[in-house]
């Protein structure tokens, strides 16, 4: 069984992934893989270099994520181009990790994919689990976590489908607007409905 954990930026996906991992379910994390596929020498690295030029790299050749973020979160066409370059490589690695985990005997896995719904990929998972947060809380947490301005934070939030709309695509929703403990209890309750018992 594959649980597709999704949400919006700073909506508490990592928090839920941590709980799921603590309960013994391995996480295949698209954000982590997105960092690996752009390492120097990888095919996507070369594509980024020829499309965006040197301005998105540090002096030592590694990707300047802040610089690339500034470009793509304020320009939808460039973001679409980036997605086209990166998503096939991310997807390929996710499938590879999935096969490995199944071969190791895992029966339940978690795919942590922020853009699962936007990319129309909900069919690759059995359940869509949405990490939801109220909009004002999301903005506040994002600004605090990334030490970003309101404008920067909003540009990132607006690069994604609004969470209110994403709710319609979810099989289950954890509202992370409150305390962490409440989130954990909601998550355990959902798992129980799916036939998985865990200790809260
Ligand atoms: C633009 C990049 C370099 C900015 O890096 P940065 O370290 O600042 O952010 P990070 O990678 O930690 O992403 C934070 C969050 O931003 C959101 N986000 C990332 N990429 C995108 C995107 N293309 N569109 C909308 N939201 C996005 C996600 O919610 C993600 O969890 C990076 O996000 C990236 O490479 N994005 C393209 C790959 C991608 O689509 N990743 C999402 C997983 S499929
Ligand atoms: N229930 C909560 N109460 C208070 N703070 C929380 C709660 N859940 C998450 N946070 C905080 O909000 C921020 C965003 O949460 P988290 O990093 O889990 O989101 P995310 O969806 O994984 O984000 P991203 O997609 O941007 O990586 C973090 O700083 C986290 O510590």
UniProtKB/TrEMBL annotation:
**Is the keyword Nucleotide-binding assigned to this protein?**
yes
Q: Which GO terms describe its molecular function?
A: ATP binding; dephospho-CoA kinase activity
Q: Which CDD domains match?
A: DPCK
Gene3D superfamilies in the record, alphabetically? P-loop containing nucleotide triphosphate hydrolases
Q: Where in the cell is it found?
A: Cytoplasm
Residues where ATP binds = 10-15
User: PROSITE patterns, alphabetically?
Assistant: DPCK
Q: How is this protein annotated for GO cellular component?
A: cytoplasm
Q: By its UniProt entry, which InterPro entries does this protein fall under?
A: Depp_CoAkinase, P-loop_NTPase
Q: Which GO terms describe its biological process?
A: coenzyme A biosynthetic process
Give the EC number(s) under which this enzyme is classified.
2.7.1.24
Q: Does the keyword Nucleotide-binding apply?
A: yes
Q: Which reaction does it catalyse?
A: 3'-dephospho-CoA + ATP = ADP + CoA + H(+)
Keywords assigned: ATP-binding, Coenzyme A biosynthesis, Cytoplasm, Kinase, Nucleotide-binding, Transferase
Q: Give, as in the UniProt entry, the pathway in which the protein acts.
A: Cofactor biosynthesis; coenzyme A biosynthesis; CoA from (R)-pantothenate: step 5/5
Q: Which NCBIfam families match?
A: dephospho-CoA kinase
Regarding protein family, the annotation reads: Belongs to the CoaE family.
What is the recorded name of this protein?
Dephospho-CoA kinase
The organism encoding this protein is Geomicrobium halophilum
- This protein's encoding gene: coaE
């Amino acid at each position: 069984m594959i649980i597709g954990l999704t949400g919006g930026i700073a909506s508490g996906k990592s928090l839920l992934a941590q709980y799921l991992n603590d309960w013994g379910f391995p996480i295949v994390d698209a954000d982590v893989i997105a960092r690996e596929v752009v390492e120097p020498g990888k095919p996507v690295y070369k594509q980024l270099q020829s499309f965006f030029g040197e301005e998105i790299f540090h002096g030592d050749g590694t990707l300047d994520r802040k610089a690339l973020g500034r470009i793509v979160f304020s320009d939808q066409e460039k973001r679409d181009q980036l997605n086209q370059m990166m998503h096939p490589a991310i997807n390929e690695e996710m499938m590879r990790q999935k096969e490995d985990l199944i071969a190791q005997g895992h029966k339940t896995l978690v795919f942590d994919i922020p853009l699962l719904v936007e990319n129309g990929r909900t069919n690759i998972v059995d359940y869509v689990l949405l990490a939801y947060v109220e909009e004002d809380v999301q903005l506040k947490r994002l600004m605090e976590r990334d030490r970003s301005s309101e404008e920067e934070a909003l540009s990132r939030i607006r690069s994604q489908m609004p969470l209110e709309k994403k709710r319609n695509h979810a099989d289950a929703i954890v509202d992370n607007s409150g305390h962490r403990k409440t989130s954990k209890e909601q998550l355990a309750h959902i798992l129980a409905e799916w036939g998985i018992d865990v200790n809260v």
